Amino acid sequence: xxxxxxxxxxxxxxxxxxxxxxxxxxxxxxxxxxxxxxxxxxxxxxxxxxxxxxxxxxxxxxxxxxxxxxxxxxxxxxxxxxx
Length: 83
Ligand SMILES: [Zn+2]
Prior knowledge:
By secondary structure, the protein is an alpha+beta fold. The chain contains one helix and four strands, in the order αββββ. The chain has a four-stranded antiparallel beta sheet with strand order 2-1-4-3, with no helix packed on it.
């Protein structure tokens, strides 16, 4: 198929692989019982932040890691409706 000038131009400008944003996860480690919980990132999370959210002992947890993970399936859920 013959491409028009504009189609080619659009391809060059916008034809990059659509970027799928990684899901950001936060890992909390309970300082009392050692329970480690991985959950989705909330606004304001940062490493070494302490929280009171252990599911097991209601103790103080500390964020030990914040990282992004790409979804395992490609080209699905390109548009997520996160609140
Ligand atoms: Zn705990």
